[in-house]
Every structure is written in structure tokens, then in C-alpha cells.
Amino acid sequence: MVIGDFSGRSRLDACPGALQVHAAADGGLARVRVPGGRLTVPQLRELAGAAATWGTGVIELTSRANVQVRGLGEETGFAARMAEAGLLPSLTHERIRNVLASPLTGCDARGVLDVGPLVADLDRRLCARPVLAGLPGRFLFALDDGRGDVAWLGPDAGILPDGTGEAALILAGADSGLRVPVTSAVTALLAAAEAFLAELTARETHAWRISELSDGAELVAARVRAALDTGSAGPVRLRPPAEPYRAGRPSTAGEPVGAVGQPDGRVALGVAVPLGRLTSAQAELLADLASHGEVRLTPWRGVVLPGLARAGLLRAAARLAEAGLVTDPGSPWIGVTACAGRPGCAKSLADVRADAARATVSHRGGGTAATTGAGPGAPIGSDAPDGTGPGSRAEPEGGTPRAVAPHVADSPRTGTLPVHWAGCERRCGRPRGRVADVVATGDGYRVDLDGQSLTCADIEETTAAVAAARGET
Ligand code: SF4
Fold this sequence. Notes:
Elements: E1 22-24, E2 27-32, E3 38-40, H1 41-54, E4 58-61, E5 67-72, H2 78-84, E6 99-101, H3 116-127, E7 141-143, E8 157-161, E9 166-171, E10 174-181, H4 185-203, H5 216-229, E11 237-238, E12 258-261, E13 267-272, E14 277-279, H6 280-289, E15 294-297, E16 302-308, H7 313-322, E17 336-338, H8 352-362, H9 369-372, E18 419-422, E19 436-440, E20 445-449, E21 452-456, H10 459-469
Parallel strand pairs: 6-7, 7-8, 17-18, 18-19
Antiparallel strand pairs: 1-2, 2-5, 3-15, 4-5, 4-14, 8-9, 9-10, 10-11, 12-13, 13-16, 15-16, 19-20, 20-21
Helix pairs in contact: 1-6, 3-4, 4-5, 8-10
Bound molecules: iron/sulfur cluster.
GO molecular function: 4 iron, 4 sulfur cluster binding; metal ion binding; oxidoreductase activity
Organism: Streptosporangium roseum (strain ATCC 12428 / DSM 43021 / JCM 3005 / KCTC 9067 / NCIMB 10171 / NRRL 2505 / NI 9100)
Keywords: 4Fe-4S, Heme, Iron, Iron-sulfur, Metal-binding, Oxidoreductase
């Protein structure tokens, strides 16, 4: 089934869905939208089962906190199984349910608003508006809880609450200057989506993102303001975008990896997934450990397990490490991403994922226990049965809840510079901001950073160049 013809620019928006499967070099590729990255434990088990039954057995995590499964044949029960699991609530709107949310919202004290309920409200109202089925599959919403982790990941329409009961409306990845009551945040986001469609109609043009329209953000903002001023959304105020919320502010918030104390005494555990590839067995393990009943996917292709009891945290970390997952914020796996590469993409000049894994594991022991025999990650602590002893990243019993220092995407700290491996110059999936690009050339790799390039003949040279770029040598 093909859903709609919402052509971007001069050609069809080819974003895959659960129903509109993309024919990749290694078989069918289906993408399942997961608004806010929120999966119930049964849903994660269904995904794991479907990937194992009809796909390659791997669930790929995307930079929009969605999931995709590769290697599907022509006739599968994949979509039906997703629908039964509640992951396909709308046949007409499935590909536009791209909603980021702060993964730790409601878990710790860094946010000013728990945006979890807003995610559900936005998804429900999005699917209830027939006109919004016309959005391109590239259109992206973001609900930031005030900590500034997802507002700057380039959403077309997003909110950033400021703690006063208002939220900045983000358009095309930048502060629009509009301030709306948080109680009207979802209304404002829907108005922005409708305004974008109206702008496309008025110009008789096609575009996938607001940023592709000249003066797109300004014109959409004007339409949003007019729509809200005549509605019941409450007062809309216009403010000059305040520093540091001007356009182009780099993302300085990052991937949660390690234990984060919750005010209720429990712990949210951030788990990095090397190269965003989650095997069905790893997914089943996460489901087993998610005692709170929920798993949150992150835009950094990782996972958060909220609401874990402190007792048993060390054991959980050990099991995750044995399975090849990462809970150590200092792991060299943090910040390493790769495009599909061979064999999934016919354009690829190399098996970039295998090479990225080889380079990461071979340099300063980046392998997890599954690949190197190493023990559980140090952040959870190793000198107390529950993993909360001295040196632990989880707070001591009775201590003030605090977050571990998260990975900072564009931090100058040694070893944390994001590295993106790509099979060709297109560099699909490249993170925003300052990144070391490792691009396959057919004769090896080229490492690009800050306008400088180094050509490497083999994986050893590439590994050394990447390490140097990350400041590890
Ligand atoms: S960057 Fe090139 S090789 Fe990698 S997925 Fe995109 S098109 Fe394919």
C-alpha cells in the first residue's frame, strides 16, 4: 500500500513506513514511527519478534527515535503485527508521526515540564486531522522539556518551555520569537504544520521541510500567530529570540548514557546501542530489564530505561555489557555513527558498519563485553552490590538525585567528538554540528574534519586518523 502522493520538491517523498516498504539492496526496509521514542515492553517484544521472523533480526534505531527493520521479503505479516501491537494507529498518517521528545523528561529535575503527556496528545490530534496526512514524511516535531536536548536537533516545529508557563516555538530549528502558553503548545505545533501546508499551497510548490522555503520560518510564524490569535489558545507573545536561542545554536545537550537519579529514588538508565543496531536478543534483554514497563528510544540511537530500582543496577549493567550494549559514558562507542553501507545500500563503497566497529573496538579497547570479554561499564559502580557505591554514576543511597554527565555531542573533551562513517559522499545520517566524517573512497577512507582531509589507504590508517581527530593520541 502506498500512502498519498506528498511529493517533496520535484519528486515523491520516498520515506519508508510500515506499509510503504523501501526496496533496499538487502531487501525490504520498513520504518515504524515511535512518537517520543516511547515503546511499551510488549511493543518492543513485538518488534524483536517481527525483526527475527521476517527481517535480518536487527532493529535499527534512527536519529528521529524511530525504528526500522531490513531484509523483509515481499509478503510478510510485518505491518499487521505492528498494527496489532498498537504501533500503526493510522494508515493515512503513519509516516508523518515523527516526534522527538526529551528522553529523560519526567525522570529527573533538569526539565521544567514533563512532555510525555504532550507527546500522546500531539500524536492523537495529528492523526485526527485529515489535512495533515499531506505533510511530507520528512517533517519533524520536537517536544523539549526545557533542558535543550532536542529543540536544537533541527525540528520543523518544536517547543522549548522556559519554566514560566510559556514555551518558545521553534520553527525550522530556530527560535521563532513566538511564545505560547504551554497549555497551547500542541495547538501551536499543529498550527505550524498546517501553516507549512498552506504556504506550500500558496506558492504552488513542493518542499519537505520549512527550511527549504525562502523565509519559510517567518511566514509560517506569521500564519501561526494569526491562527492562534483568533482561536482559544491563549495569549501569544512575540519576543526577540534570546541568546542562546538564535538560529544555528549548536546542540550542546547529548545522549544520556549511564545512570540518572530520579526524585522518587529510582534510576533511569541510559544505554548506548553501538551503531544503533539492536539485535532481537538485545531488545528482549532490554524488555526483560524494563521493570517500569517502558523503553524510551533516543535521537542518539540509544535507549533509556526509566524507573529502575537501584538494587540490581550493577547486575543489569553486567547483563547489558555481556549482550554488547553500553552504559559507560566514557565508552569510545559514544558518538560513533554509520550509514547503512554495504550490503544494505547499493551506492556504498564499503561495509562501513563493520569497519566502524573494527576501528572502534581495536582502538583503546572500545569493545563491549560481548566482543572483548570486558566486564560491566565502570559508571554504574563496582564496589557495592547494587552498583551505587563510591565512584558510581548512580547517586548514593539517600543522596541528592543528580544526573551523570551525559555525553556532549560537540564537547571538546577527548574522545567525544562525534564520528560518522559513510559509504559515499552523501553521508546519510550524519549528525548535526562538528563531526569527523569518515567517507569511503573505494581505495580506503578519507577523514574530514574542520575543512581538512586525510586520505587513508587501509583500516589501520583510518583508525589512527579517527583517534587523532578525537584527540585520543
Ligand atoms: S551515505 Fe551513501 S552509502 Fe551510505 S546509506 Fe547513504 S547513499 Fe548509501
